[in-house]
Amino acid sequence: MDDKKCSNLYALLKIESGTEDYRYFHEIQRADLLRIAENDYDPSSYDAFFLVPAERHQLLLKYNRAAIGVLTFDKIDGHKAVLRGIAIKEEFRNCGHGRALIEAARDYAADRGVTQLCVNANVDKTPFYRRLFFIETEWSHAEATLMSGEGAPVQMVLHL
């Protein structure tokens, strides 16, 4: 498949509260990331939750104009950002869309002067991030401490 042709089918959009894209973002986050019932999900509580102070960008990935993925981009200092809440809708998984989402986020970060892109990866997802050139390294001792213990995520960094 031609990467140039395929990349034109994707759009990574910063969502605004109250829009249709805002609804899509939160539906994917609720159903495909958190896997919780609609009655148990309050978008405003997720919009306002921060582990550390950050400039927050909620991003929606569209493929052929269909909303298929989400992530939260938290710029935590002038040159470092954290990707959080990364999810692709279940019916679109294992088709390369996760890679497209991270690559689009990488470009989004570079456009904003970010040189270090960080994730807290589930242990079973570390091979995926390694294939995208993330390396295992502690990027925030405070976050590592908050999430320590059995099943704790692995901190990974991509240098842009």
Write the layout of secondary structure elements.
Elements lengths: L2 H5 L2 E5 L5 H15 L8 H6 L6 E9 L2 E12 L2 E9 L8 H15 L4 E6 L4 H6 L3 E2 L4 H6 L7 E6 L1
Parallel strand pairs: 4-5
Antiparallel strand pairs: 1-2, 2-3, 3-4, 5-7, 6-7
Describe the fold and architecture.
By secondary structure, the protein is an alpha+beta fold. It has a single domain, classed as Aminopeptidase (3-Layer(aba) Sandwich), CATH 3.40.630. It is built from six helices and seven strands; from the N terminus they run H-E-H-H-E-E-E-H-E-H-E-H-E. The chain has helices spanning 3-7, 20-34, 43-48, 97-111, 126-131, 141-146, and strands at residues 10-14, 55-63, 66-77, 80-88, 116-121, 135-136, 154-159. The protein has a seven-stranded mixed β-sheet. The model is unreliable at 1-5 (pLDDT under 50).
Number of domains: 1
Proportion of residues in extended strands: 25-35%
Helix fraction? 25-40%
Task: Outline the low-pLDDT stretches.
Answer: 1-5
Q: Give the distance, in angstroms, between the N- and C-terminal Cα atoms.
A: 26 Å
CATH superfamily: Gcn5-related N-acetyltransferase (GNAT)
CATH topology: Aminopeptidase
CA radius of gyration is 15 Å
In short:
The protein has helices at residues 3-7, 20-34, 43-48, 97-111, 126-131, 141-146; strands spanning 10-14, 55-63, 66-77, 80-88, 116-121, 135-136, 154-159. With 160 residues, it is an alpha+beta fold.
